[in-house]
Design brief:
- Helix content is 57%, strand content 7%.
- It is built from 6 helices and 3 strands.
- A hairpin with a 4-residue loop joins strand 2 and strand 3.
- The longest helix has 21 residues.
- The radius of gyration is 19 Å and the shape is elongated.
- This is DUF7344 domain-containing protein.
- Pfam families: DUF7344.
């Protein structure tokens, strides 16, 4: 059975849609999603140290209470948070890095927390 539809009428509008993968890149990693969600529970003007974010990420990743996160697990998370994750979130303007270890919400934080909330609502 052949389909008589003209597929080009459907594909042309789809080609015009933006291919904005960078919007979703910051959300592709559990650690970055954890950081965004954690920051959303703090007052909007709160400053957080990298060590605090790393400890929270380590606990979430290992499914452990904070007091059970050992030094090795913490160090692994700390290095990744400090070297990769905060920088990616800062590049996307989700977080602002004020110095080596002081982090606050960035200009686009609200947009990304709304994205995460919408995703969570559908899961």
């Amino acid at each position: 059975m052949t389909d008589s539809r003209d597929l080009s009428t459907h594909t042309e509008p789809l080609r015009a849609l933006p291919d904005d993968e960078e919007i979703f890149d910051p959300l592709m990693n559990l650690r970055r999603r954890t950081i965004i969600r954690y920051m959303s529970h703090l007052p909007p003007d709160a400053a957080v140290e990298t060590a605090e974010l790393a400890r929270v990420c380590a606990a979430v990743e290992r499914d452990l209470p904070l007091h059970k996160v050992n030094h090795r697990t913490y160090r692994h998370a700390y290095q990744a948070v400090r070297q990769r994750d905060i920088q990616r979130l800062a590049d996307a303007e989700i977080l602002d890095r004020h110095d080596r270890d002081t982090i606050t919400r960035g200009e686009r934080f609200a947009y990304f927390i709304e994205l995460l909330d919408a995703i969570d609502d559908h899961l």
